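Hi R.,

Here's the chain you asked about this morning:
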Amino acid sequence: MDKAKVIRDPVHKDIFLSELEMRLVDTPEFQRLRRIKQLGVTNLVYPSANHTRFEHSIGAAHIAGRIIGRFDVGDAGEALRAAALLHDIGHGPLSHTSEELLKRHLDRSHEDATLSVIRESGIRDILSEYSVDPDVVLAILSKEHMLSGLISGEVDVDRMDYLARDAYHTGVAYGVIDMDRLVNTVELVDGDIVISQGGLRAVEGLLVARFLMTPTVYLHHTSRIADAMFLRATERAVEEGLLRLEDLMRMDDFDIQAMFRAAGGYVRHMGRRLEDRRLFKTAWFADETCGDEGLRESFYALMEDLGRWARLEVELAEDCGLEEGFVIVDITPRSRYEESNALIWDGEAARPVSMVSPIVRILQDTEASKWSVGVYAPQEHLERVRGICGNIKGYL
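And the predicted structure, written out as tokens:
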């Protein structure tokens, strides 16, 4: 790889980018990522969590280069680095919060948006100019190439970078992983991406880090409240014609903030609350410790019916004498814990890490049992909402 530019990074130190990669970085589509925070509204909890999709994408490309440099894959190596660099280019404002909007209303993911951006922008021409086949990059990102697992697999460069980067910027020590060991024990065996036996402890460490970072950072209760407020405000903006969901993937965090400020009514009110950190509070909460599996399944069923979910919020608000949108029901999605399917190669066969590691089996079982539901409302109406939620089963 020609080293056209060196970038200093707090996580990986020196990162070298090629001339092609610098051309990709300098596109408007990639520069937009500078204005999209990696962890969305999590900086309301961890003030230094202001890092962006921009540096995460560069970090992912760096790790991809370290891994693929160990193998003879020909021109696919450059395509892999390009795919890692571009893997988040379709992310919308506030990252995963806007992704939830796309899933709910357009049945699209940010991965779908990423493919569209590459196909429809000048990025495709830049790749071709440097003799990197755009279709190979698209195939890697579409999970249709033997190297796809390095970008979106069980133990991939995306996870490796965001765990280390998120831990660094939040100050939470749980995300520390053995990056060198992971990178140096990745193998390509019969078209599968596996981790050699010597990397088992590093994989266990990554899974423990992910397990601990989830409640501490990714599902922190205050972040969940802020995410839910942003989601409801943005949905209302769509309903009122202030925003087209199709435009969301071209916007950044500042565009959304400007839209909230220019709006009126509920959208403006919620935008001001988020800016001033006047967040809703928890009126009612339930999780796996309550031992009510029937309640859990009722809420999971609600997640499959957005109309019923919206009606529940309206009914709770009306019975509390509040306007629509001032009672929010937040259901944490089921955990998929895909990392436990990472393949460990013992020299003869590849087996899921959950089959060879007692630690991972415990994590897997614990993660599968976790669930939570919160009902949020403004501080001044908390007691009223709490009283109504005492009979929340009656609303389900």
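The two ends are 59 Å apart (CA to CA).

Let me know if you need anything else.
M.
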